Amino acid sequence: MCFSISVLTLFIFSVFLHAALTKNFLNPLSLHFLHTKLLYLALFSFTLMPEPRHFRIDIRSREDYDELHPQDSYSFPWENIRNEACALPERSCSLDIIMKNDEKGPEVKAFFDRLGFLSVNYVTFASLPSEQLTRETTEGFCWSPNPYLKDKIQQVEQEIGVGTVLDVGCGSCRDMIFLSTRGWFVTGIDNREKLLQQGLALSQKYCVSEHILPLVSNIKQGLPLRNDAFDMIHICRFIDRLLMDVLCKKVKKNGLFLYSHFLEGCEKTEVGHPKNRNGFFENGELERILIKNNFTIVDCVYNELPDRRPMINISARRE
Fold it and tell me: Where is the signal peptide (predicted)?
């Protein structure tokens, strides 16, 4: 965004300066002033441009990776790549793909081209300098969980400890994986079986399969879970107003409800989605629902996604 604005602004200024020079309607002092402002604008705009994140993705076998791999690289064996693709970095990043050889080069390139990363560079393992290789496994993930959950989880654990979580509309289970690596036992519900299968693959990848329970269920038809069962409920970008009263009863007394979702105003952005109240909360609506169900608002943060869509992030405790 910064780059496109900068280029457009510089172009307009350049046209104006050219006209000023050819038509002689500005004196030299004014031209010098405008030229200086143009340089400052260029420097400031390009300074604001964020550096794209860069990741090394090793698609060789796990055995080859464990034996030796590039520093700061993540293992995504080619034979598992379709199930594990949901754990790849966000598409605004650039990648180095580490291959054993060029044998599957066209197939690999076609796969990553479809995913639409900022840029992808393909490297054979044999071409890497030995000083860049290591046996130490890269810690953490190359993807990010719900930012609000990530920011709040340490405080949550200090307040209520590590316990049980229900993740509603869990998708491919990345937030579940994040929580389970911290010791939480997580039940996830979604009606998309394919995504839950990817989540199971991720739980095996990160060795937390004993800590997660993905359930295929159409929650609009009811929740097959008892009341007062969970220390925390987490929801990110899922909405069902008719279900909220039922969900609130699933939280233990003094348990927490963490919710991140779209707010009204999304329909006015360039993305334009969600386009009506079936997909977003109105201002103040989520707070009222939680208070009505005997929750106290602990924290409430309003922010915008990079695409300018407004979000509400809320933490509430059941009384």
Answer: 1-22
Radius of gyration of the chain (CA): 25
Q: 286 and 259 in contact (C-beta within 8 Å)?
A: yes
- For the four alpha carbons of 270, 114, 60 and 51, in that order, the dihedral sign comes to negative
- Among 3.40.50.150, 3.40.190.10, 3.40.50.720, 3.30.70.120, name the CATH number for the domain at 147-318: 3.40.50.150
Strands 69-70 and 212-216 turn out to be: unpaired
Tokens of 143: 């993807």
CATH of 54-134, one of 2.70.70.10, 3.40.50.2300, 1.10.10.10, 3.40.250.10: 3.40.250.10
The percent of residues above 70 in pLDDT, for the chain, comes to 84
- Cα separation, 210 vs 208, whole angstroms: 5
Q: Are 251 and 257 in contact (CB under 8 A)?
A: yes
Contacts of 35 (CB under 8 A, 6+ apart): 17
Mean pLDDT to the nearest integer, 107-136: 95
Contact call for residues 124 and 100 (beta carbons, < 8 A): yes
What's the start-to-end Cα distance of the chain, in Å?
Answer: 44
In the chain, where are the structural domains located?
A: 54-134, 147-318
pLDDT tier at 37, thresholds 50, 70, 90: low
